[in-house]
Amino acid sequence: MKYYIINAEGKEVSFDLSVLPKSSSESFRKVLVSTGRGEEKEYLMRKLAGKVFVSEDKKSWKKLAQSKVSESLVNINDTIKIYRGFKPSGLGQANAGNLVTDMPGKIVKVLTSEGAVVSEGDTLVILEAMKMENEIKAGIDGVVKAVHVKEGQVLESGFLMIEIEN
């Protein structure tokens, strides 16, 4: 699953996270983290007494902080937004109301129409890409100006799906 982490200034980091099935002979799962630059790192993850621990070498284990909030994190200096699967198109671009595909896929469901009032975070389209259904969410509050897709349509990367005016 692809994750995007974006701070309040628009600085972005993205990575793919794959959790592999636990083998019957081991008490941990392998987690692969790969960046867009071809770097890949393997971690080991296990649960113990309701807590999650991670290790790189099976010797030193660190407890992971758990958060009930899955869309944003706050630290002393910054607020960080987390997007899973797809980030709302337009973040860091001139028009945050344009929802553009980041990768090829097929439209499974269109959940909005022209003239609809939407809020930031509302799911507007469900796109199947790489055998997974991804919720495409509004990046801003506003009114849907145009819907350029229909259910069953196959899209190439960079296709403008929906325009929102605020």
Structure description:
A hairpin with a 2-residue loop joins strand 12 (123-129) and strand 13. The chain is mainly β. It has 2 domains: 2-83, no CATH class; 86-165, Beta Barrel (OB fold (Dihydrolipoamide Acetyltransferase, E2P)). It has strands at 2-7, 12-19, 29-35, 40-48, 51-55, 62-63, 72-74, 79-84, 98-100, 105-110, 117-118, 123-129, 132-137, 142-147, 154-155, 160-165. It contains no helices and 16 strands. The two termini are 30 Å apart. An 8-stranded antiparallel beta sheet has the order 6-5-4-3-2-1-8-7, with no helix packed on it. The chain has a 4-stranded antiparallel beta sheet with strand order 9-16-14-11, with no helix packed on it. Strands 13-12-10-15 form a 4-stranded antiparallel beta sheet, with no helix packed on it.
Terminal CA distance: 30 Å
Total count of helical runs of at least 4 residues: 0
Shape descriptor: elongated
Question: How large a portion of the residues is in β-strands, by DSSP E?
Answer: over 45%
Query: How many extended strands?
Result: 16
Succession of helices and strands: EEEEEEEEEEEEEEEE
State the strand order across the main sheet: 6-5-4-3-2-1-8-7
Mean pLDDT: 79
Largest sheet: 8 strands, antiparallel
Residue windows where pLDDT falls under 50 for at least 5 positions:
none
Structural class: mainly beta
What integer value in Å does the Rg equal?
A: 18 Å
The tally of domains stands at 2
